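As noted in the main text, all predictions were made from sequence alone. Below is one such record, for Regulatory protein.
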Amino acid sequence: MTERPAQRTPNRQLAALIAEAGFSNAGLARRVDQLGLEHGLDLRYDKTSVTRWLRGQQPRGTTPALIAEVFTRRLGRRLTAQDLGLDACAPVYAGLEFAATPEEAVDIVSGLWRKDSGSHAELRKIAFTPAGLVVPSRDWLIGRADDKVARAEPPVRIPAQGRPAVPGIPAQLEAGRRRSPVDRGPGLRVGAGDLAALRSVGELFRSLDDRYGGGHARQALVRYLEHELEPMLRGSYGEQTGRRLFAAAADLTRLAGWTSYDIAAHGLAQRYFVQALRLSQAAGDRAYGSYVLVTMSRQAVYLGHGREAVQLARVAQQGLGTTAPPVVQAMLHVAEARGHAVLGEVRACTAALVRAERAMEGARPGDEVPHWARFFDDAQLADELAHCHRDLQQFRAAVQHAERSLQLRAPAHARSRLFCRVVLATARLGLGELDAACHLGAEAAGQAAEMRSVRAAEYVRDFERRLEPYRDAAPVRGYRDKVSALG
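Prediction:
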């Protein structure tokens, strides 16, 4: 990899951080190369490369960001290329920062929206970074709500007619845009109608996501955030309205991350989740922050990072305490159980599941439950139990809970039902019930074919991998014929 001509000024910032981290030159080079491999980069740095950096040469491309991430992991605080005396570069880690102020948080998240809504396909190819979970979750845990979020800019009034349509936003949303003398530009005065609209938008996109998969309307959601929500965040509002606005922004940003996760844009999803966590802090909504951490934990489970999943769930529990409604408490304990299950930790998983079930038993009709936690009902709890028992190869228990979840779950939750059906098929296979397993698997494959969800397709592929030892059996041949007929 070519380097820029050497500068005359030695890089004392880098030298000081190398000393603080206890790296040798060769050790730093080796860690940069290893981190590059995580991002599909074949780097060949050595101790001589580091010597050149210390003398003032500037590495090209994404390398300064990689070097900064090496130090971030080692020292446990977020460091940028500039902190190391290196030039700014391609933002490999942009979006993983936990902003110091609400204004900075708006800048970071709106930058993500703009890049994601454009033609920046590379943003959706960025790798998930387990170490990128550490600093944001820690900063959330020890942080507190911002002292002030209100903005008091005077409104800018321009005619409402003649505004162009926002590309990619569904027609029903476009038709519902507020017709008022105050346009969606700098200086917009945010009111109760705007907040109600944001809540409706969230409900619409959540419904589309669960029925048809994250890929169905994800891009329209991101464009809505860029064209509608960002001007609100940069508008004017009082303290109470501002908190509610940041809460809505956190919710929609988490949803953008969730849909990105569903299409396997895992690095991008991770960045959205981190920013949703920061926006929840600006909202002063500790409970919602714990929900974002649970979401991050679920992604870690899906990617096989069980230890990180457990840690995120425990941070959520510690940060929220015991004052949350029983349903929320159950959700936090289940998230921890899923991480233990991935790790094969039977006793720890069982203990977390017992805590979750006890918390759920404490729920009463009429309890005040946050809108974002209402999905966590008996059907969802049974689904989570089924997943845990499947991962622990406790197949009879997995069958019991999966069947209960499917009985309770409404048809509108199509993707969730698909996942549970695959879990049931896998458990039936584990019990040697090949005919039943293949029948359930074929049903799930048919449903996955109608969705734009990489996760749905991957659930089916995982089941098919488990069928390989039985590939010559008649039920498996019949399964393959049915799936082939789907095209």
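Residues 184 and 231 are 6 Å apart (CA to CA). The chain has a mean pLDDT of 88. These features were considered when defining construct boundaries for the mutagenesis experiments described in Section 2.9.
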